[in-house]
Amino acid sequence: MFEIKPIQAEHTYALRQKVLMPDFSIEECGYQKDFDQDTLHIGAFKEEELIGTASFFKETHETIKGKHAYRLRGLAIDPEHRNQLRGQTLLLLAENKLSQLEAETLWCTTLINNVEYYQHLGFKETDFRFHVPSKGLNVLMVKSL
């Protein structure tokens, strides 16, 4: 059975570490706004096992117009469960919840080699790019809700 539901911030850390931050300790896998009242964390479960997470922060970006924006961070799907539409399903449920919160825009930054994946999820690539020394070139992606 596959289920998607809200989870607590600390429940995202193990998958963030495994998928996104393998060189960090579990304590270092938190984000600054994890415990803000407006933050939404979503988990995807197969049976009782957490196999995917994503976090959504009420946050604007300097290049995005509009005030009702959320930022997607920490989208992490366990490698054993990829290519099964888990990320897409998780994101669709979250977008529904964000729309209920009157969010108009969802945005994220991603490495240049992940742009095609986010385009598949409905995000549009922008001209805003920046370089992270330890990771490489990042691109701002935006999606209207």
Summary of the model, kept short:
The chain has 145 residues and is an alpha+beta fold. The protein has 3 helices and 7 strands; from the N terminus they run βαβββαβαββ.
Descriptive tags:
145 residues; 20% helix; alpha+beta; Acyl_CoA_acyltransferase; N-acetyltransferase domain-containing protein; Aminopeptidase; 7 strands; acyltransferase activity, transferring groups other than amino-acyl groups
Description of the structure:
By secondary structure, the protein is an alpha+beta fold. It has one domain: Aminopeptidase (3-Layer(aba) Sandwich), CATH 3.40.630.30. Helix content is 20%, strand content 39%. Strands 1-2-3-4-5-7-6 form a 7-stranded mixed β-sheet. 26% of the residues are buried. The mean pLDDT is 91. InterPro entries: Acyl_CoA_acyltransferase (IPR016181), GNAT_dom (IPR000182). It comes from Metabacillus indicus (Bacillus indicus). One of its GO terms (molecular function) is acyltransferase activity, transferring groups other than amino-acyl groups.
- Please give the number of β-strands: 7
Structurally, how many domains make up the residues? 1
Query: How are strands sequenced across the largest beta sheet?
Result: 1-2-3-4-5-7-6
CATH architecture group name = 3-Layer(aba) Sandwich
Average pLDDT works out at 91
Class derived from helix and strand content: alpha+beta
State the CATH superfamily name.
Gcn5-related N-acetyltransferase (GNAT)
Residue stretches low in confidence (pLDDT < 50, at least 5 long) are none
Shape: globular
Roughly how much helix do the residues carry, as a percent range?
Answer: 10-25%
Radius of gyration (CA) equals: 15 Å
